[in-house]
Amino acid sequence: MPTLLIADDHPLFRAALKQAARDALGEVELFEGDSLESVLTLLDAQPHVDLVLLDLHMPGNHGLAGLAAVRAQYPGVAVIVVSANDDPRVIRRALDHGAAGYLPKSSGLDELRDAIRTVLACETWLPPALRASVARSQSAPGDADLAARLASLSPQQFRVLSLVADGLLNKQIADRLDIQERTVKAHLTAIFERLGVRNRTQASVVLRELELTDPARRLEV
Length: 221
What we know:
Layout: E1 3-7, H1 11-25, E2 29-33, H2 36-45, E3 51-55, H3 64-73, E4 78-83, H4 88-96, E5 101-104, H5 109-120, H6 131-136, H7 143-151, H8 155-165, H9 170-177, H10 181-195, H11 200-208, H12 215-220
Parallel strand pairs: 1-2, 1-3, 3-4, 4-5
């Protein structure tokens, strides 16, 4: 029986994805996460998850950085990116960072079901209307190197890096992760070495290179 993790902070959309998964697969084990932190925690606890449907813009996610973290830390888990952003260049970057599929939130139920079945069959899935434009899109310079550097981080190191990028101090990070401050400092030393940077600012810049604008939030403004 396949195991899926639905990762989105909107309950109604999670419900739609769950129904599509059941329609596509029949018997399926489902888990839900509403933040990147909860997704990483669930993947730690449920190593048998086969597929993650990952929202690029849920809390704690830095655009493509969350995708890079999941693919780096759980390479056996396939990921379908779910986003309101249907820019072919963004889709190309998601594929370069290890996505097995890309599903715009405007997709209908038939496309949802087709995407899930296709990726679980170890194939790549893209919306039919976007395949040609994505094929013409070029990979972003430096994306492969950036993905490799992020892939070198442990799950806890990635969490520390995300909190650094959010502007938290060492003590705040220690409190948030329930670890000692000296442990945070040790993680930072390892992070700087693996990312090839010298300080917190440079480390934050590495992560922010993967940030994306959320079209839904842009429309709200």
